[in-house]
Design a protein that fits this description.
By secondary structure, the chain is mainly α. It is built from four helices and no strands. Pfam families: DUF6760.
């Protein structure tokens, strides 16, 4: 499993809800989607968190089919 895929889908939870989203993970998601789909940074950042994670998952599925 790639580091991005692990960090996005590890299922880690924090007690008391999400305090903040790790900026390194956000940069990874934006870079990953931008690289594969050529979407702008603003378009990607305007996505809801769960929608952005879904696109990461869909890109991972595409990449797995290509292997």
């Amino acid at each position: 499993m790639s580091p991005l895929q692990y960090s996005v889908f590890s299922g880690a939870r924090t007690s008391g809800g999400v305090v903040s989203y790790p900026s390194d993970t956000l940069y990874e998601e934006v870079a990953f989607i931008a690289y594969h789909f050529h979407w702008s940074q603003d378009d990607i950042l305007n996505l809801e968190h769960t929608t952005r994670q879904r696109w990461v998952a869909e890109i991972n599925k595409i990449n797995q089919k290509l292997i």
